[in-house]
């Protein structure tokens, strides 16, 4: 009962604070009080009403003492500014400008204090939920699992709002990353819980790559993601490759994970194959010599040739045929789209939506050519190796000639 009462009180405080935060944000943008109908006048009215209402609510939380002071200060500034509104002269004008600026500053302080309180509550709720979830003695029901996922979503939404050094300190002190990784690696947890934890880990990297990358590289995150073998887990791997780049690809190669990613290209699940293809292209862009060798030695080129030969493959060289097919199906293709090099990217995008493995050999070769991981002489050597493997994997001279032409056309000689 006491716990439920505490939660209800926290929700009441949060509701008041969210209203205060919105009003203070509007007041920062326009602190003028000249018009009674202006947005700032509405914000001021809301703040003054909430200041009276929130005194008793905020006084019980020591973290909100500064906020109460700011609200009282703001009320005094607004009263003074409104009283000076009827006066005229340069002194009154300058005085109003100074007080208007001060109102904007105090409104900003109010918003910062509120965000800091919300961040603390978010981290307290997340830490408590993770500890409960990781406790082997307390199996969670489906409804409790739903609540846990909601808390993870709240945390991810906060991370998406941008960096905050105060929030980062809270994250590091609470050791949230380690707990999220423990959930991700926990094979007894449900798939949706592990996947949501994986997305939260990726969001932490986006929040501050410099701080959290080391924990990814030293921990079990990537191996756990690949062993899960779900579309969501592969999406996170692909996202991490983009964020961490060559160091993560080096880690994948050292632990033999690249071969596992390539094996997903042979699954029947189309979405899994498409996501694995995205991973392959990202590895091609950021991978160093050892990683690319590992991919080619694992039979990647042969697999890409097979995918390009499939119904979902095809050749981007034949975009004209694609336009004809669309016209036969009644899809309008205007002259503006059909003609001109500037329209090619849009046509390729549409073609790839229905043929995700079209020209996949050349697309991989281009990633190596324009990527960051290889030296120039390594790029030339790998292109020759790709051409050799294409000829070996092709079922006919015509197929080999088409793919070879695409590789040579799609990347510089």
From TrEMBL:
SUPFAM superfamilies the record matches: ARM repeat (SSF48371)
InterPro entries: ARM-type_fold
PANTHER family per record: ARMADILLO-TYPE FOLD PROTEIN-RELATED, ATAXIN-10 DOMAIN-CONTAINING PROTEIN
Name of the protein this chain belongs to: Uncharacterized protein
Organism, scientific name: Ilex paraguariensis
